[in-house]
Each structure stands twice: as C-alpha cells, then as structure tokens.
Amino acid sequence: METTVTITGTGTPRPAPQRAGAGVLVRHAGQAMQFDTGRATVLRLAEAGVGCDEIDAVFVTHHHADHLVALPDLLITRWVMGAREPLPVVAPSGPLDRFGAYVLDLWADDIAVRSAHTGRPPAPEPAWTAFEAGGAPVLVWEGEDCRVTSIAVRHEPVRPAVAYRVDTSAGSVVISGDTRVCEEVERLASGVDVLVHEAVRVGGLSPGREYIAEYHADTVELGAMAERAGVARLILTHLEPAPADAVEAEAFGDDVRRGGFTGDVLVGADLLTVGLGVRAAAQSSVPSGGHGVDSNR
C-alpha cells in the first residue's frame, strides 16, 4: 500500500500567484488526510483529483487564519457533493475549541436555504476532536494501517501550535505546521522518510518584516536540524518571502545545504507529490508558473 504526500498549498498570509494557503494531503490505503486548510484548499484538492467528500479527516496545526480559512469551504462543499456524515477534525485544545464550535455559524442562512430547496438534511457540524498538546508525542488518530501522532512546537506567541507525524507500513511523514526550528520537531521527525517543513530566508525579508524570523524556521538552521534528525527527504513549504522564479526558489535549497543537510531537498510548489521512501526525483503536477525545485546536488 503506497503512501503519497501532496502539498496543497505553499503560501503564506500574503497572496502570491500559484501558491495556495498552507496545506498537505496524505493518502494511504484509500484514506485521505488533510493537514491544514489554507486559502484555495478545495480547488487544490480538486486539481489533485480528490473530492471534498473523499477526505477522511482534517488535522489543524494552530489557529492562524491562513491555516484555517478554507475549512468552512471544505465542510460546505463536501455536503453539497453529497456527504452526510460529520467530518472528523483533529486540533489542539485552546482557541481552536471556539472555532470548532462556531465554524459553520456564519453560513447558517446559506445552509438553511439550500436544505429547504433541495430537501437534503442540513450540513453536519464537524466531529471535532480536541487534544492536549505537550512536549511529548501523543496519538491523536488511527486509521487503516495508519497512526497520527502530534507534538507541541515553538510558534510563540501563538499557543498552542503543533506538528503531526503519520506512520504507515510504507513509511513516515512529519508536517511541521508553523514553528521555529526546534528540538520538538527534531524528535518527532527522527528518521522519517519525508519532513514537510515551513521555511524562511531571513536575509530576504523586506524591511519592517524582520519579526517573521522570531517565530518561523530559518532555512540554514532547518538544514542542520534535518541532518541531525536523519531525515531522508525534506520538502520546504510556507515559503517566505515567496520566490518569484526558479532562481529564487533554488536559493531556499541552497540555504538548507549550507546548514549541512545531505538528504533530498525539494522546494515546494503547489501539488508537488512524492511517495514515501521513494528517493528518485519527485513527481510534480504544478500549475503554470509554479516552481517545484529539486535542490539535490
């Protein structure tokens, strides 16, 4: 049973052409798990050939809007597509508890009129599962031949923020969410086949935006951490500043190499897809203008 990892969005809060909001899709044994739901997630899923009604669970890393804004879209779209069962949503307990309780409230009139017009039952609220995030991994979800664990990461002042690890018989993948380079992700990602990690080129930040480096991952430090953790393949996402062309994208990978990382490096583009444990060049389905840069040397 193959496990695949698809980057559904490599963007940040600032809009960038061809870069949807944060998100990662993991598929295994007929299951589809979506990690974060940034802007345009539903469209990227459609481009990847995955219907919203085919998503088995959503996992949220933290309560920043650029990781959440498409969750109502996903919930309503799956209902319009015919799903009637509540969608499992897993999230760390805290501000997200309130979000989960009210996520569809703004759309109550839309849902009501569609329901009355079509005769279908109202859209179900998500099956929200909250867990306490801490400094040690906790099991948060189990599926067929699949376990998802989570650990708190360092995105202060945003608390809580978490990373997730998916383990299957085909291999393992860690999704960092938003975080500084930290020992928590290093422990969670020890020996993984794929680490999907946010990345910031600190030297490329425009004046007045230096604060970004306070709670995001420096590319050079990330390369050193991934090497210590024994990561086989590193995929960079949530790219800041957003690269405008292939040369700027390649600079992210160059930074990681300067940090000492010797594994495979891919600078993420929306819809880039890899198989766990596959060391050949990643397969990529990139919208026109996107950049999926393989920075292996």
TrEMBL record:
<keyword id="KW-0540">Nuclease</keyword>
<keyword id="KW-0255">Endonuclease</keyword>
<protein>
    <submittedName>
        <fullName>MBL fold metallo-hydrolase</fullName>
    </submittedName>
</protein>
<keyword id="KW-0378">Hydrolase</keyword>
<dbReference type="Pfam" id="PF12706">
    <property type="entry name" value="Lactamase_B_2"/>
</dbReference>
<dbReference type="InterPro" id="IPR001279">
    <property type="entry name" value="Metallo-B-lactamas"/>
</dbReference>
<dbReference type="GO" id="GO:0042781">
    <property type="term" value="F:3'-tRNA processing endoribonuclease activity"/>
</dbReference>
<feature type="domain" description="Metallo-beta-lactamase">
    <location>
        <begin position="20"/>
        <end position="216"/>
    </location>
</feature>
<dbReference type="InterPro" id="IPR044094">
    <property type="entry name" value="AtsA-like_MBL-fold"/>
</dbReference>
<dbReference type="InterPro" id="IPR036866">
    <property type="entry name" value="RibonucZ/Hydroxyglut_hydro"/>
</dbReference>
